[in-house]
Each structure stands twice: as C-alpha cells, then as structure tokens.
Amino acid sequence: MSNEERFEKLEAELASARRLIRRLMFGAGIFLGICVLLVTVSTITGIAHGQAKEKVIRAEEIRADRFIVDDSQGRQVAMFGMNQDSPALLFGREGSVPRLALLSNGPALYLADGEGVRRIVLTIAGERPSLSLFNRNNMDLVDLALSGDRPCLTLTDDKGNVLWKTP
Q1: What is d(CA 120, CA 143) in angstroms, rounded to the nearest whole number?
Q2: Domain annotation for the chain: domains and CATH numbers
Q3: What is the pTM of this model?
Q4: If residue 110 lies in a helix (H) or strand (E), which one and from where to where?
C-alpha cells in the first residue's frame, strides 16, 4: 500500500470520526432536552411517586435550586439542579456516584459503570470537542477529538504510554 493510499484511507477514517462526534453531540443535546422535559413533567404531576394528582399546577415561571426525582421507595434516582455553581442533570442513587451526568460547565456528558467508575466522557474544552473512553482504573485509553478542523485519535495503554496517535 503506497503512502498516497494510506493517506486517503486515513482521511476517510478521520472524516468518519468527525461525523461520529457531531452525531454524538447532537444526540446528547436531544437526550438532555427529553430528560429535562420528563423530569419536569414527572415532578409536577407526581408520576415519579406513582401517584396521579387531581390538580395540575400551572405557572409561567418556576424557580428552584433543584428538582429531585424519587423512586417508589422514596430514594433519589435523579437530580436536576446546581452542581458547583453550574446547572447539572444527574442520574443515580443519592450518596452514590451518578451513572449518568450532564454538566454545563465544560460542557460534559459522563457515563459510569455499575460501580460508579466513569467509562465514557463526551466534552467540549474551548473549541475542542472530544470523546474519551476509560478503563476501570480511570485511565484514558481512547481519545477522539477535533483540534481546530482536524480530527485527532490517540490510543494509550493502561500505563499511559501512547500506542498510536494521529496528528
């Protein structure tokens, strides 16, 4: 395979990575909107407690520090509110690490495994969107990012050594 063919193949892979990041960011935005809508509706109507209220409260404006969703046993399973002076949407049991966190400072979307260890992070730092995959030891093994208009892919081992990297 000539260098020209390798370069064309690499360009195609990088274009595919760029499309994937855009789709993930779009999907995360839609997911956030749906989650906020569901949390708001379930909190106002009492569906989170399995109770249908006879009276629906309507208001032009609602101000609160946070909205909390409880399960049928009264345990907190989600929270939409302030987290370190920034709005956040967190899913998970109270007192445990959230399984899913959407934070506006950054912004960032964190997905954790059953033990609360973050495994996938989608973030934007300045003008640099990135998707990172972590192992159980919280080591960043795969990082897919856009630097300017150029995609960048970095693969590392569990000791932090770079195995492969594009520009």
Answers
A1: 10
A2: 3-52+66-165 (3.90.930)
A3: 0.59
A4: strand 108-112
